[in-house]
Amino acid sequence: MSQSAPPSWLRQAERSNNAILKLMVWISLTLGRGISRIVLFGIALYFVLFSPKARRASRKYLHRALGRWAEWSDGFRHVLYFSSTVHDRIYLLNDRFDLFDIEIFGAEALHASLDQQPGVLLIGAHLGSFEVLRAAGRGKAGLKIAMLMYEENARKINSALEAINPAATEDIIALGKLDSMLEARDKLDQGYLVGMLADRALGNDVTVDHDFLGEAAPFRLALSAWRPCCAARCFS
């Protein structure tokens, strides 16, 4: 076991521009998904060409995941697939659920918990999409979802959500404030699903090293006993 080093993800600035994001939202919602996907290829190409740090990280990961030297085309597809998941959020956050085939697994356990108390705390990882879960809740079961995020991340996310759909910003609860837990409690009392992603370390978490893609990687121990009860899968 070891104490993890201060995380770089808290210090790293995200490369985004709200004016361009708003333009992409307009193109996506006005001209349709087909045309906006063409624009997305250009955006992915831009990041591959002008974001060397991300390109190096992508190539390092792909080399280990693929078991071979990662070509330029591999890196482009990597960025494009990531961009596509972000692009999907434009539609999910604007209630365009008709563009997706969404399947829910384990909903019985979730609804059983909601029958016993007004709200439920959901703990997840950077795998899948809370936007899909939000879409499933709003579109099918009438559930309301709020997300707990670290304050700086919440500010960035709120700014992006404001550009995509201003109504979505109310579902973000910033961690690190005096009333964060009180706000989360109030949301739970109001029947919300309150979600948080717990797979990122803050720098003082107890971790244990395990082999991951051929190298040792630190995994947090705090939530090692947690098992997921509900999952959402989306096909676009």
Would you identify the regions where 5 or more consecutive residues have pLDDT less than 50? 1-6, 223-230, 232-236
Number of domains: 1
Count of alpha/pi helices:
8
Strand coverage percent: 15-25%
What's the rounded overall pLDDT mean?
78
Number of strands: 9
SSE string, helices as H and strands as E: EHHHHEHEHEHEHEEEE
Structural class: alpha/beta
Order the strands across the largest sheet as they lie in space: 3-6-4-5
Tell me, briefly, the overall form. globular
The termini sit apart by 41 Å
What is the makeup of the main sheet?
4 strands, parallel
Cα gyration radius (Å): 19 Å
Helix amount: 40-55%
Strands, helices and their partners?
Blueprint: E1 2-3, H1 18-31, H2 33-50, H3 52-66, H4 72-92, E2 101-105, H5 107-116, E3 120-124, H6 130-141, E4 144-150, H7 151-164, E5 172-175, H8 180-189, E6 192-197, E7 206-212, E8 215-220, E9 231-235
What report would you give on this structure?
It is a single chain. This protein has 236 residues and is α/β, with parallel strands linked by helices. The protein has one domain. The protein has eight helices and nine strands. It has helices at 18-31, 33-50, 52-66, 72-92, 107-116, 130-141, 151-164, 180-189; strands at residues 2-3, 101-105, 120-124, 144-150, 172-175, 192-197, 206-212, 215-220, 231-235. A hairpin with a 2-residue loop joins β7 and β8.
